[in-house]
Design goal:
This protein is mainly alpha-helical and 267 residues long. The chain has twelve helices and six strands. 56% of the residues lie in helices and 5% in strands. The chain is globular, with a radius of gyration of 20 Å.
Length: 267
Amino acid sequence: MTPRQAFFDCLHRSPPALFEAALWMAAEHDPGLRPDTVMSDLKDLQQRVSGGLPMLPVSELAQPMLRRLNDMGFAQDDFTPLRPQAALVDKVLERRRGQPLALGLIALELARRLEIPMTGVNFPGHFLLRVPGADHLLDPCGGRRLYPNDCRELLQRQYGANMKLSAEHLVTAEPLQMLQRLSRNLRQLHLANDDFIAALIDAERVLELGNASAADYLARASLYQRLDCPNAERFDLEHALLLSDDPIQRLRLTERLGHLPPNSVVH
C-alpha cells in the first residue's frame, strides 16, 4: 500500500483516523517515516500532558490541555520564511513549532485519546478549536479563548477592515476539510521553497479529496508550467475555466490557453 492509499484508507474509516492520515501525508515527502511508530511514540506525550492536567470534568479540560502543550514548548512557528516542516505533523511533534492547523491536529489527537471533547474550526487564515457547547473558540497556539469580537479582530487583522465575520467562518470542520486545508498549506509552503515536485504531490492530493476550486486547478497548472508540462497545464487551465465565475479571470484563462502549444498525443 502506498502512502497515498494509506492516507485514503485512514480517511475512509469510521470515524476517520485524522492524525494518522496527516502522518501518511508527511510520509509522501519522507519515505523513511513510519506513521505507526509515531502513533506509538505519541503515547509518551499523551501521558506527560495528562499528568499535568487539573482534576476537572473532561468537558473543562480543553483549554488546560492546550496550555499544558504550550508550557511544554508547543507554539506557532514564527520563522520567516515559513518552511514545509511547519505543516508536516511529524516535524511539528519533533520541533514543537508549527502552523495553527498542524498544532490543532496534534491537540485533536490528544483530546481524542484523553476523551476530551474538541472539534476543529476552519477559521480563515488561522485554524481554531471548539469545545462543543462552549460560547468561545480556542487558539491551538496556546489555548487563548476567542469570543466573537476576538474572532472579528483576528479576521480583520489578516484580511483587512472590510472583511466581515460570518457564520460560515465558525462552522465545525470535517476531517476531509482539515486534511484538504493541510494539503493546500503544504502545497504553498513547498512552492515557496522552490520544491515543485513536492508541491505537485500536495496539489494532486487537494484535487483527489474532491470539491476542488478553480484556484486549486490553477495552482497545479502553475506547477506544471514550471515543470514544462504543457499538456497537463492545459488540462488544469480548462478545468479552472469551467469552475470560474469571475469574468476577468475567465478572460485571462482563455488568453493563457491560447498561448499554449497545441495539445499533443504520444502514441
